Structures are given as structure tokens and as C-alpha cells.
Amino acid sequence: MADPSCVFSYGLQHACPFWDIEGILRKPTPVTSPLALHLEVTKQALCRKFDAPSHTLLAFIPPSAQPAYLALRAFNIETSRVADSVSNSTVGSMRFQFWRDNVNRAFEGSPPKQPVTVLLAQALQDLGTRSGGMARFSKNWFMRIIAEREKYINNAPYPTIEALEKYAENTYSTLLYLTLQALPMSSVTADHIASHIGKAAGITVVLRGLPLVAFPPPPNHHSNSSPLGGTLDSQRRSQGSVTLPLDVMARNGVKDEEVLRKGAEAEGLRDAVFEVATRASDHLITARQMLKNVYAGEDVGHDFEHGAEEEHQYDALPKSKGTEQREEVERSFGVFMPAVATELWLNKLQKLDFDIFRDELRRREWKLPWKAYFAYRRRMF
Predict the structure, then answer these.
(1) What is this structure's pTM?
(2) Per-residue pLDDT tens digits for 207-245
(3) What backbone phi and psi angles, to 5 degrees, belong to 366?
């Protein structure tokens, strides 16, 4: 049976009624070029294995920006998996340098024969064509994602909850900034809302992955690297680690060794998870209130703390006369849709009394296509 999120996504893109499943399945997408083949491979990877929510939410991105959206998500997947696919930080740093070099070559227009890099190079060229040379991607934002992931290559815990927020800002919020550039959209309001949604999404991803990092799967027996070298990296990878912020753990009396020994029954763990989840939920609440303020014709309510950064340029694209915040937000709303998936997961975590080890939290969310559809129609999550 076809995955329901993929079916729903296909239906929206082709203007089919979302209840006409058989009709949708009778309309396969033709692959007519090497680039189209790359895109189809990326779609399948996103849908079936690594990032099903992003594939579902592809339907809400304007068709002209969908190839760039897929390229950005594939880049995010590749860089996020480095820490889990290497045996030590030295090899990991080499992998991240590989991605720095690939990004540089993509921007130079001479990408290596690596599918994700080819997709990025095509997205860069396409954006320039669609915008008449007025819009471009920020290379610094790609490098920021790589650099921030490299900081935590050994799955070390975050020193404070603010450090976790910074990680989320420099990865998932930055990914949303790049997606806005792909539309193209140049708006302080859109970036501001995306910042809060990205922080919520990034914090949630760390929470969701906590059990897998604490109890990693057996090492790859085909690897030439041995986990018995005695280094901090190898010990952390073989024994697992707890990636909750250290200040939150201290406030709630959580100890690494108890979590690794007792799992969900460790003292204070649920309280610590609740505190971190609350911070993610606060960012969603803030983003939702900002949307309400914009729709009411009011100011968003507070200044954008990252607005002074060099990468946030809001005068690159000419704006039509009378363009307002509401119009910018409505055009950008497809980029904000990760808020729906994030909220669904946080609500499920709350219903499970913040037991982060429950298997239900790692299952595909069947409600997402329908929740996303109605959120997009209302332009509110």
C-alpha cells in the first residue's frame, strides 16, 4: 500500500481530490531527464526513510520552488547523518569538509557528480533564472548549518538550553531562511516567524532522537574502525549519551548514568523533557501570535533578534507597490508548515506524560497530511 503522506502530497500537487486515492495512483510522474531522475530519487529517500514529514509538506511549496526545497532537505539529511555514520570526530570533520567543498563548487557552477550537490547547483541556477538575477541563496547559511552540526559531532550534550536554541537557530531556522530565499521571499517578518518555527522544530528533533543517541544500535561490523580505542568519541558512541541540556538536567536531578541504566524510569527525566518541550512549544506559541498580529494589521509584537545579521537582507528584491506584511506571510506560509508536524509531535509527547522512550513517538504521524491541509487553508497552525 502506498504511504498516505506521499499519496496526499501527490494529490495536492496535481489538483486531485484528496479522497480519490485510486485516481492519484493511476497517474505516475514521468522521469524524462537525469535531473528528473535525481529529483525522484531524492523524493523517495525523503518519503520512505529519512524525512517523511518534509515530503508530505512539499505539496505546500510553490511548484517552481519545489526542486530547491528538495535539494535543501536532502542537504539537511546528509549533514545531519554525519555524526551517526562515522566512528570518530576526525573522520566526521573530514566529511563536513567534503560538504564545505561541495557547497563551494555548487556556487561556482561546477558541482562534483554527487546527487545532492548536483541538485543544489541546479537550485542555485534556477533561482537566478526565475528572479532575473535579483535573488540568490546565502552561502554563509549553508556553511552555518555545517559548522553548527560539526560542533556536536560526538553527540555531546548541550551546556545550556540556550545553547540548544542556538543549535536549532543555526540549523533548522537557517534551513527555513534558505527555503524562503528559494521562493524567493525577502521579508523580515517571514524570517522572524521562520526563526521561531525553526527553533521549535530543532529542539523537537533533538528530543525525538534522544533515545537513539542514548541507546545507539550495534556498530557496523563492516566498518574498518574499531570502537575499542578508548577515546571519548568511541566511548560515547558505544555506550550512548544523553543530549539534554546540562543546566536542565541539573535543575531536575537527572544523571547520565541513571538514564543509560534505567531509561524512562530515571529520576527527573520526564521533568527535564517537559522543560525542554515547553521551550519548543513556547516558540510555536510565539510564532502563532505573530501570525495573528499580522492578520490583524498589527505589529508582530517584538523585534527580530537576528535581524542585524549580515545574511538577513530585505532589499534584494523589488517589492510591488502596496506590499504588506500579510501578503508576505501568506506567500511564505508553505515554508512555515513544519510547525504543524512539530506541534503534532509535542502534543503526542504530552499525552504520553513526557515519556521520551515510548515507541509511539518514533512512528510516522498519519494525521499530518490532513492537519497540514486544513492549516494551510486557514493560514494558521
Answers:
(1) 0.86
(2) 999 999 999 876 554 443 333 333 444 444 546 889 999
(3) -70, -20
Average pLDDT value for residue range 42-70: 82
pLDDT digits (tens, 9 = 90+) for 88-127: 889 999 999 999 999 999 999 999 988 889 889 999 999 9
**Residue 196 grid coordinates:** 521561531
Using one digit for the tens of pLDDT, what is the confidence trace for 300-318? 888 888 877 877 766 644 4
Are 191 and 141 within 8 A, CB to CB?
Answer: no
3-state secondary structure string across the chain: CCCHHHHHHHHHHCCCCCCCHHHHHCCCCCCCCHHHHHHHHHHHHHHHHHCHHHHHHHHHCCHHHHHHHHHHHHHHHHHHCHHHHCCCHHHHHHHHHHHHHHHHHHHHCCCCCCHHHHHHHHHHHHHHHHCCCCCCCCHHHHHHHHHHHHHCCCCCCCCCHHHHHHHHHHHHHHHHHHHHHHCCCCCHHHHHHHHHHHHHHHHHHHHHHHHHHHCCCCCCCCCCCCCCCCCHHHHHHHHCCCCCCHHHHHHCCCCHHHHHHHHHHCCCHHHHHHHHHHHHHHHHHHHHHHHHHHHCCCCCCCCCCCCCCCCCCCCCCCCCCCCCHHHHHHHHHHHHCHHHHHHHHHHHHHHCCCCCCCHHHHCCCCCHHHHHHHHHHHCCC
